[in-house]
Amino acid sequence: MQEITRIFREFIHHGLRHPEGPSLMRTFNRTFQFDLEDGGPFFIEIKDGGLRVEDGGCGLDWQYRDWDRATCVHTSQRFLRNVISGECLITKGFFNGELGFAPRRAADPHKSHAAVVAWFYALVRLSHEEITGSAARESLSKLSRT
Amino acid sequence: MPEDSGKRFRGLDPRIVTAYARSELGRATIERELVESAQVQPGDRVLVLHDQDATDGMNEVVRVATEILHGHGAQVTVIQSDEFIPVMAGTDQGAWYRIEKHRLPRAVYEAIRAADVILDYTVNSRGAQKYNEDFYTLTMYHGKRVYAFRAVEAPEVLSNDPDHPIASPEALSYPSELLRTIAIRVIDVLLLAAKEKKPFRLTNPWGTELRFTVLPGDLAQNAGAVRRFPNAPFDYAGGDNNRVWNALIGFAVPQTCGGVWVTRHCSLLGGTLKSPLRVRFSGGFISGAEGGTERSELMEKIGDEPAGIHGILIGMNPKAAPFRDGRYMLNNTGAGAGVSHLGMGGPGLFFRKGEWGRIGNKHFQLGNIPKVSLWAGDEPIFDQGRLLALESPAVREEARRYGNPDELLRQFDWPEVPL
Predict the structure, then answer these.
(1) Does A83 contact chain B (CB < 8 Å)?
(2) Of B127, B302, B337, which is closest to residue A114 (Cα–Cα)?
(3) How far apart are CA B385 and CA B340, in angstroms?
(4) pLDDT in tens, A76-90
(5) pTM value > 0.90
(6) Fewer CB under 10 Å: which end of chain A, C or N?
């Protein structure tokens, strides 16, 4: 598994440990196919609250046949690392042209694509909150033992 | 701080807006926006935003909305500021000209984060969640439910008479569920064509002639962007959805698009134009323009970056006639069936014809043009501004649930609309 896939998998799994993580993960079923400018592709499949992150193509045709099941995420390893490290807010990258989604309007006949993107961002936010929260708890625990 | 050209929405007379908010139907419509669209619950922390120097009558809308919110048990905080999203000098409401990075005051930003629901009644609020980074982050990342400019979003439904401020009461009270049904039926036809990679064609009597293709997932909007009740998760995202009576269908960034768009209004150029403007498109981007002195102003303003199509949208409400005193309102906002607008530019990366790229950060509209015809492949959807789905037996059957189908499905008549 390429390094960025492994890092992103570890990062997004933190979200599942957040108190709101499991219910948020069950909100939708969707596959995100990552198309990286500076690396090989990988994908995240979220189904019934479960999460799978793997290298390569997901096998879905997000442009036509499977438009209502998959979203393509165009970005770079560099940007994903900046998001994971907290150096860059993911929405800032969207405005700076470092992140794109396709398609953009409808995720399926009953759901806007904006809803799916907001859900994806929420998963990223919870992962960050869980990482920073658990680090703070650990630090305070150490302090209280000294 | 960028220069601001004023806080009046599409030339609306503030006396009319005030009378609208005080009228029985106006108040009822504002309440529906709060209850059915924003879905405010008792105990919700509601933040109301409006302009410090509003000259558009919106103060009365805010007063009425606040009164209704208190009646529903919400905790209401109102913030007035002169530093929301500015309407830049030389442009009109709806144009997002170099304000994608405009920063909200820190206090406002934090107040939004602390609220459950945000009702944004500022003049340029519509679209903030898509075209301004702060608002985008607040809604899309922090999950804040922002509802923008819902009180008086279409001047075409108002009149010139403060004693009778609503010109089209039947447009405002049109059954939302019926609009959803009609939109879903139309989108089904568009979707089939998009899946089969068929071309779309849009024309109007002024000389507009566009041919384009789209991905199935770039059809807009789900159920005409009409609210579902109750909301589904993340239904607030995007800022175009959860409408009560103003339904739209159409297309997001096309994969291919060429042709001509002829208009008499452009938000980037300050609104109503002195003379018709013919804008040429190639590959989905503006490739040139002819007509009038404003042609050079347009080309100059978009000269620093490519200007690509962000959306092609068509109104669906069969009662929202875009006329006043028998004349087509160039400043209408496209609520009526058969009125189409072209939105240009928008932040982010877009997938087009196998490549990722930008379409320009400046978002603006090339007017709302009348009486369009639209074909999905060979299938006509609009004919000379007439929404053909209104004649469908299935839609007629559905309409019976809400009243007399003859009345509900009778669209306003389109007269000749000279350029």
Answers:
(1) no
(2) B127
(3) 9
(4) 999 999 999 999 999
(5) yes
(6) C
Is A62 touching B (CB cutoff 8 A)? yes
CA dist., res. B65 & res. B50, Å (int): 12
Q: Is the ipTM of this complex over 0.90?
A: yes
Which residues of chain B are within 8 Å of residue A62 when distances are taken between CB atoms?
Answer: 217
- The total domain count for chain A is 1
Preferred mutation among A105, A108, A111 to probe B, highest tally of B CBs within 10 A: A105
Cα–Cα distance between B284 and B262 in angstroms, integer?
A: 15
Q: Are A105 and B219 in contact (CB under 8 A)?
A: yes
- Domain C-terminal end among B120, B148, B172: B172
CA A53 to the chain's CA centroid: 10
Asked whether residue B111 falls in the same domain as residue B217, the answer is no
- Do B116 and B204 sit in the same domain of this protein? no
B52, two tokens: 């410090």
Q: Do B137 and A92 touch (CB under 8 A)?
A: yes
pLDDT tens sequence across B172-222: 999 999 999 999 999 999 999 999 999 999 999 999 999 999 999 999 889
Domain boundary among B117, B143, B172: B172
Distance CA B40, CA B184 (A): 26
List C-alpha distances in Å: B160 to A25, B215, B323.
51, 42, 12
Q: What does the pLDDT read at residue B151?
A: 73
Helix (H) or strand (E) holding A93: helix A90-95
Contact B58, B17 (CB under 8 A): yes
**For chain B, first and last CA: distance in Å?**
38
Per the structure, the count of domains in chain B is: 2
Residue B128 falls within a domain, yes or no? yes
Taking contacts as CB-CB distances below 8 angstroms, the residues of chain B near A111 are: 222, 232
Handedness of CA B270, B272, B274, B276 (dihedral sign): positive
The low-confidence residues of chain B, meaning pLDDT below 70, are 1-10
Is there a contact between B235 and B241 (Cβ–Cβ < 8 Å)?
yes
Domain of residue B355 covers 176-408
Q: Which residue type sits at B61?
A: V
Same domain for B248 and B134: no
Q: What is the CATH number of the domain that holds A35?
A: 3.30.1050.10
A107 and chain B in contact, CB less than 8 A? yes
